[in-house]
Structures
1.
Amino acid sequence: MDEVSLPPDLEHYAASAVVEGRYRDRSAVVAAGVALLRERDAARASFLASVLAAEEEADRKGCVSGDEMLTRVRARLAEKHSATE
C-alpha cells in the first residue's frame, strides 16, 4: 500500500487514536476511515436510487407537488369556512 499523508490535525487525531488503544496502528485508522467512506458512498447511492424510484412511481401514478397540495387544502378550508357563515 502506498504511504498516506495526512494533514497535521488528522495526523494528530490518528496518533492519539493509536496511543489510546482504539486502533492497533496508523494503517488501521486509515482503513477505518476508508471503510466509513465506502459505507457513506453506498448509503448515498441507495438514497439516490430510492429518490429516483419514487420520482418514477410519481410519474407513473400521477402526483401533485407540495405547493399544489397546499393550494388544494387552502381551497377546501376556504370552502368549509364559507359554508359555515
Note: The chain has one domain: 8-83.
2.
Amino acid sequence: MAQSSSRSTDFDRALGETKKQAENVASAFSGAAQDVYGQARDSAADVAGTANEAARSAMNSFEKAIRSTIETQPYTAAAIALGIGWLLGRMHRPF
C-alpha cells in the first residue's frame, strides 16, 4: 500500500508541474498575442491616418483645380454643369 501511495504522490506532483508549465506556456502565448495585436492596431491606425491625410490633400487639390477652372473659364464650367445636371435628371426619367 505504501508503494501505491508513493506512486500516487509522484503522479500528483508530476501532474502539478505539468499544469504549471502549461500555464506558463499559455501565459507567454497570451502575452505574445497581445503584443502582436497591439502592434497591428498601431499599424492600422498609422495607415488610416496616412490615408486620411492623402484623401484630404487630394480633395484640396481637386477643389483648387475646379475653382481655378470656374474662375478662368466660367462659361465652359456653366455648360459642363448644365450638361451634368441634364444627364442626372435624364437618368431618373423613363425613356
Note: The chain is about 95% helix and 0% strand.
